[in-house]
Amino acid sequence: MKKAVFPGSFDPITSGHVDIVKRAIPLFDEIIVAIGENAQKKYLFSLEQRMEWLEKVFEKEPSVKIDSYEGLTAHYCRRIGAEYMLRGLRNASDFDYEKTISQLNSIVGEGLETLFLISKPSFSHISSTIVREIIKGRGDATPFLPPEIKIKF
Ligand code: ADP
Predict the structure, then answer these.
(1) By C-alpha distance, which of 81, 86, 80, 52 is closest to 66?
(2) Which atom of ligand 1 is nearest to the CA of 36?
(3) Which distant-in-sequence residues (6+ apart) come within 8 Å of 81 by Cβ?
């Protein structure tokens, strides 16, 4: 059974994240979209809210499961028996960062493989960081969010 973890903060989930997961569905038997919680990090949205959004966005996808974890992503993958990690690449900065992380994860995760999908051009400008800035500035982030998510202003 080919099981992949798509890890992230999803603070909030964007259309870019959704596109990566949907394109990966035919490649794996199961994809676990997992929120990595770091006690030191401040999030704009609560873990409960972020989980609820993920559940809603992927409710019609039987092979997509939602979860959260603490600690190292590589350890989490091993714990749940996932041999693959899924990541999206938007640009060269993503690549530089992700390359090192995937090499480290292969060691820490004892052979854990990272599979990268290149972002579609129509999503490569979207990041959760930018979306949070728009929301904090009371702008309308709807164009960057999946249709299931409505954030009130
Ligand atoms: P992190 O908390 O590690 O920054 P994010 O929650 O922002 O993670 O993103 C999780 C994954 O989704 C990462 O692999 C990231 O590169 C990818 N991603 C984020 N935004 C996009 C996008 N617009 N298009 C494609 N992939 C994306």
Answers:
(1) 52
(2) 2
(3) 3
Q: Which of 19, 90, 132 to mutate to test the pocket of ligand 1 (most atoms within 8 A of CB)?
A: 90
Distance 55 CA to ligand 1 centre (A): 18
CATH of domain 3-144: 3.40.50.620
Tens place of pLDDT per residue across the chain (153 aa): 999 999 999 999 999 999 999 999 999 999 999 999 998 999 999 999 999 999 999 999 999 999 999 999 999 999 999 999 999 999 999 999 999 999 999 999 999 999 999 999 999 999 999 999 999 999 999 999 999 998 876
At which residue do the structure tokens 């090499």 appear?
103
pTM of the predicted model over 0.90? yes
Ligand 1 centroid, distance to 32 Cα (angstroms): 15
What's the token pair of residue 125? Answer: 């400008």
